[in-house]
Amino acid sequence: MTTLTEAGLTFAGQSMDVSSESLGELRRSDDIADDAEALRARAAEDGYLYLPGLLDRSQVMAAREEVLRRLAGADVVDDADHDLMEGFVKPQANISFAPQLATDNAPLDTVLYDGAMIDFYERFLGGPVGHFDYTWFRAKTPGTTTATQPHYDVVYMGRGTKNLWTSWTPLGDVPLESGGLIVLEGSHKNDALREGYGTTDVDKFCANENEAERIVDGAQKEGRELTSEESQVIHWQGRGSFHADAIATRAQLGGRWLTAAYEAGDLLVLSMYTMHASSDNQSTSIRLSSDSRYQLASEPTDERWIGDDPPLHGIRAKRGLIC
Predict the structure, then answer these.
(1) If you classify domain 4-200+250-310 with CATH, what class do you get?
(2) Three-state SS for 97?
(3) Cross-strand pairs, 182
């Protein structure tokens, strides 16, 4: 098995520091998976829970097969000269974020919103759980343009409870060279980061600048999205990612990037204030994963991600504030 130092991880084509001071392995929590109190203490300490083998591998692989069938039909993966389940990417194919692959996908819904996943969250959160209706889906082709930039999740979904948790679920084995998720050690305890970047909302804008309020109000009343020209005159409060570069992020904030060689059936749980990203996919196969969100059903929910036609980050989600 390839070790961290041997993997030669890169971000946007640049080599990541693989020294023990800069890169490390995620701490496993599968040994306490049935102990709710220990799980909560570990999550508070680490900002994440890495739970190898928590999910049913056969169900995960059934979801992978459904996704790969769709990608083969879209001419992204080669199922003529290669086994479909290998996910071998055709030349010139280049995708990263593909939420449509989660739509009307019963095998994926079984993995994410039933069985072991829900059992875990009811145990971990201590009561009946709810989840967002919207599912984020990543289908990352090989190359240096599809790595996920460093970010907190709270800036995208912080209008409800902050006791909201992300499940990063790999759909298939993700060896180190395939560009799995990386977590910045201790980032959830960085008070300056939480109180600065962590308070932003990507869908808020400065209503007192230029013609921002008039433009947004007009688009909302007309039920349309902003044109590119309109967007250019609006000062958005947040742009989402903390930084475009994972290497520079670690240099600025300190800590180590933590990762693992993931397998189908593994689960990685993240708090809203845990900085994470991904490395480049240096393999020949597509890297498939989903992001789904869970909370206590009794707590407030961010309305942007609920319903058959959620606002997402569209015009209905925009809110003005005085900057």
Answers:
(1) mainly beta
(2) strand
(3) 277
